[in-house]
Amino acid sequence: MQGVRGTREARDARDEEGPPDAGGPQDVRRPPGGPDRRTAILGAAARAMARRGVRGLRVAEVAAEARVSTALVYYHFGDRTGLLRHTLGHLGDRAERYTRPGAPGPRRPEEALRELEERLAREFQDTPEVRENSTAWGELRAEAVFDPELRGELARAGGDWVRELADLLRPVAPTAPERSLAGAAERLTVLLEGLSTRWLAGLLPAGHAAELMRGALAAEVRALRPPEAPRVPEGRAAVDSPAS
User: Fold this and answer.
1) Cβ atoms within 10 Å, residue 141
2) Residue 236, Cβ neighbours under 10 Å: how many?
3) Which intervals of the chain are annotated as region Disordered (predicted)?
4) Residue 238 has pLDDT above 60, yes or no
5) Are residues 38 and 137 located together in one domain of the fold?
């Protein structure tokens, strides 16, 4: 999933919409239900997307699943598009939690490579949370074909994900140019999304998907690192060197 994928502050800064008039006796200007209610709404939206897809998503259904009023959903997210946008960020935040192996710290290139391998492999954990997250992300990506506004949000999230992965590749290949790191990161994220789609469709076992991801990472790292000089056997240098 994806992992990814932009800070919550940056996403919230883009949310400029006010609540619509929901009608009826409910007052959408009531105080918000707090972070727990907000998170519950986003979790309910993710579950609904994973079950029915984005086109089948209804605000009333999300409210019922989150056990809140429809007016409260509108209060927090403005409209259905705002709900989709923030759910996209919620999916990225969840993927960040279940893929991050631990607090990063100074490490050698091979240690950084092992950590990155583990992080990418965690995208294919066969657990309800990962399956739901990856399915909902895929549904949002498919809906973007028909929704230009959502397409823009996904493009920004994808760009954030590529930059994040490039940052993780930097300690693995410290001498690689920034452009090369960005290219490798973009190829890896595209491959991960494709493998995830096949895995979720039952066309690829999770273990094999993770193995293919590790192979692709290894190939990218070989291309990013400078070639090693051939090792000369002991005594050969003296024999091959010209006489003084």
Assistant:
1) 19
2) 10
3) 1-37
4) no
5) no
Domain with 72 in it: what CATH number? 1.10.357.10
Contact 188, 120 (CB under 8 A): yes
- Evaluate the CA torsion angle 158, 7, 58, 25 in order and state its sign: negative
How is residue 209 written in tokens? 């998907």
Domain of 192?
103-224
The pLDDT score that the predictor gives to residue 95 is 85
Q: How far is CA 66 from the centre of its chain?
A: 24
In whole angstroms, what separates CA 177 from the centre of its chain?
24
Last residue of a domain, one of 61, 90, 119: 90
- Average of per-residue pLDDT values in the chain: 82
194's tokens: 């494709």
Closest CA to 57 of 38, 84, 39, 33: 84
Q: Which helix (H) or strand (E) holds 197?
A: helix 178-200
Same domain, 78 and 128: no
Give dist(CA 125, CA 228) in Å, integer: 35
Q: Tell me: the pLDDT tens digits for 24-82?
A: 333 333 444 566 899 999 999 999 999 988 888 899 999 999 999 999 999 999 998 89
The band of 106, judged by pLDDT with boundaries at 50, 70 and 90, is: low
Q: What is the pTM of this model?
A: 0.73
